[in-house]
Amino acid sequence: MSNNNNKKRCYIIEHMEDAIHEWCALEYKHMLQNIGPDHLYFTSLTDKCLNEGFPEELKAAQCFKEDVLRLPSVKPEEICLLDPAGTSELSPEDGDKFKYFLFGGILGDHPPRDRTGELRKLGFAGRRLGPVQMTTDTAVNVTKRIVEDRIPLDKIPYIDYPEIFFSRTESVTMPFRYIAETKTIITKTGEEKVVKKPLMPPGMMELLKKDNEMSLDF
User: Fold this and answer.
1) Backbone angles phi, psi at 33, to 5 degrees
2) What is the DSSP letter of 203?
């Protein structure tokens, strides 16, 4: 039992916005489902963020107004920054080298702005998760699979830039990489067909549909 606990790593989300948006809240809740409250840290949370829109269930995680450098009992050399500009890819062995894995808690911009650069200046060791930008919750999930489950980066199934259909005529293409879930469906002709779907936070499809309807409502 204790051996299993030794494999657990901690995931720090340095919140880089003054507020918390609906998209962000859904991603953070998805992280909580995947990581659990004891090993998920949210840092640099502003009063505005905590008091306006921060979901109650997220307060079960380790929440701090302080930034990552001021976390109690956390040493900088124990931290690995997940950095799109990192020179080496994250590997299962990094789970032995580092206890904490740090992410910039921002919605993925498209095209990407280098906002992880603010954290890079702090001097942490950096690792990359491949060449394609992921959403923050996907990056956390992929990191956990690599450093805890010991699955190499290139052995995790992905789906890039998935097109999400709301109807026959309405769709949106997501400009990110997601973990791919395979699902067996029965076609109208009764045949079994395996399809790949992006692993997204619960509620994200509904939010995408709502955003899509708002953009059409001009």
Assistant:
1) -60, -40
2) T
Which single residue is written with the structure tokens 């293409």? 173
Structure token digits, residue 27: 């991603």
Position with higher pLDDT, 101 vs 117? 101
CA of 97: how far to CAs of 33, 79, 94, 125, 133, in Å?
Answer: 25, 9, 5, 10, 24
H/E run at residue 163:
strand 163-165
CB-based contacts of 101: which residues, under 8 Å, 6+ apart?
9, 10, 11, 12, 79, 80, 82, 140, 143, 147
The helices-and-strands tally (H runs, E runs) of the chain is: 7, 11
Dist. CA 39–CA 6, nearest whole Å: 12
DSSP secondary structure letter of residue 215? H
CA angle 154, 77, 94 (to 5 degrees): 20
Q: Torsion-angle region of residue 203: left (phi > 0), alpha (psi -120 to 50) or beta?
A: left
Range name among 16-20, 54-58, 93-97, 202-206 with the lowest pLDDT average: 16-20
- Whole-Å CA distances, 46 to 31, 66, 69, 119: 20, 9, 16, 17
Phi then psi dihedrals of residue 152, to 5 deg:
-60, 150
